[in-house]
Amino acid sequence: MDSVMCLVWPALFAVFMQVAADSHTSPCNPGLNSVECLAAVKQVMADDNRFWFGTNYSIACPPSSVSAICNNNDKTHTSIITRMRVNDDNSTDTIKQVLNVTFDVPAGFYQACGNTYRVPAVTQTLDPTQTTNISLWSANYQPRVSWTAEANKIYTLMVWDAGAVIMHAVMYNIRGSNLDNAQTAYNYRGPKNPVDRDQPYVFLLYEQEAELIPANITNALIAFLSENRFIAPDKIVNIASLSGPVGVSVLTVKADPYSTEYMKQNRIVNNCPVKLTPMFAALPLSYNVSDVRLLSSVDVTFTSPEISFRSCCHDVTIESNSRMTNPMGNGRIWPVYTRHVPSIAFTPLSFFDTFYYMKNHYTLLLLDVTDDLAMTSDPDTLVHWQVVNIRQGDLTYGDTTLPYKAPLPLTDRTLMFLLLQQSMGVNVSDLAKFTGDSCPQHLLHRCHFNLTAFITQLGMKIEGASWFVTSPDLYSRQQAVLENLQPEASACLGVPEYSSPCQTAADTCSNGVEMTKRVSVMTLWQCGLVLAFMARV
C-alpha cells in the first residue's frame, strides 16, 4: 500500500528473544532442567519487588493515584506466589520443575495505531528469568507446553496474568505431558499488556487427585470465572481439589503496538498517543516539542470519490477510495486522495472520561512543516486549515478561520495536523498577525506561519498530532496548470509519454496498460513510477 509504510516488528527483534533467552547471564542458559534454573525461577515467583506491583508500588502509586498505570487489582500482595494464593503463603516448595514453553509461530502482520507491522516467524522457548521481547501478536498463538510427567499422574495447566490477576487458560485431565489430550475449561488467550512495563504471565502446572468430570468442572469453572474476572489461581485449586503448583514458567512481556491496538479497539485505554510521542518529540519543528506529551489521537480519514481527468497527455480514472494518515510509518498519501476535506476524530487516552473534550476549547491546524523538518533558517510554514474554539471535540462546533486548502505539492512535502488545547477563547480577528505580511493572494494569511508565537501568545498546548507525506501526482500536476501555479511543460517535466502537443496515439503506461482503463493506484505505480505518482518535478 502506497499510503502505509510497513515496519518489521523488528528485524531488530530478529535476534529477537534469543538475545535475552540465550544470554550467558541467564541462570537457565545451561537448560531449564538445571538446579540453577529452578532456583532462579523460584526466586522470580517469590520476589517482592521484581515487578511493578511489588513493595515499591505504594510509593509510586499513593492512594490518591487514579492513572491507568496505577491500576492494581490486588494491592495487598507483592509477589507472584502470594498473588496466586488466598493467604499470604510465600513458599515455593511445591515447585519441582520448570515448564518448557515454546512459541512456534509463522510470520504475519497486523495493523495498529494506523500502521502495518510485519512480524517474523519465531520459534522460541521461554526463559522464565528474562523479559521476553516477543511480539504479543506472536504470543497470541497458544504455545507448546511440556514437562516431565510422573506415571499415572493427571494434571491441570493454568495460564494467569499475575499483574492484572486475570485467568488466560484452564486445561485439565491432562495425562502425561501432552496437551492434545487435555480438556479445556477456558481457552488460551495471549497477553495483552497495556503498559510499557514488565508484566508476568505465569504457566502453572497442578496435580489432580483424580480425573475431573468435564460437565461438573467445566460448568463450575465457567460460572466462577464469569463472576470473578479478577481471580487468584488458588480459587480454582480449591474448586478442583488440586495440589501444587508442581511446575511453572513465566512469560514476561512489555506492551507493544499489538496490545496497544487491542486495548484501543476494546475501549480500555488508548495508548497510541503514548507510542507516537517519542517520534513526535524528536521532530525539529520551529516550536520546540521535545517535552510534549501527546494525550489524544488525531485520526484523519480522506475520502476520495471517483475522478477522471486528463493530465500530461494521459487520461486517468481513479476509483473511489479512502486513505488514513499514518504518522507511525510516515505514510504517504497522494494529492488525488486529499482533494476533499478529511474527517477528523479525536480520542483521549482514557475512554472512561466521556466529558474529556467538553472541559476545554481546542484548535486544529493543518500545516506544511517541510521547511521546519529541513531546519531551514527561515521556514515558510503554510497553513492548509485552521479551526479554532472547537467545542465538544467536534469541528462543526468550531470557528473555521482558514478553510481547508488541498495540498498541491511541486516537490515532496510533509503536512501535519496539530490538536491544541486552548487556555481561553480565541479572537478570530487576531489570527492574521501570526502569518507573513507579503503572502500572495492565493495564500493570504496562510504563508510564513509562526507556530511558536501562535502557541505561546494564545496560551495553547499541543495535545495531539498526525502527519503524512505527499508528492506530485498526475492530479496535482493538472491542478498546478489549471491554477496557474506552473506552466504545463514544467508541471509535466519527466512524465513518460508527455509531449507538447500530446501525441494522438492511445496513451499507455510503460508496460502497455492503457491509462483510460480503470486501474488501481498500485497498477498505476507499477506502470512506471511516474505515470501516476512517483514522478518528480
TrEMBL record:
Gene3D superfamilies: PEBP-like. Keywords: Signal. It comes from the Eukaryota. Residues 1-21 form the signal peptide. The keyword rRNA processing does not apply. Transmembrane segments: none annotated. InterPro entries: PEBP (IPR008914), PEBP-like_sf (IPR036610), PEBP_euk (IPR035810). The keyword Ligase does not apply. This is Uncharacterized protein. It comes from Littorina saxatilis.
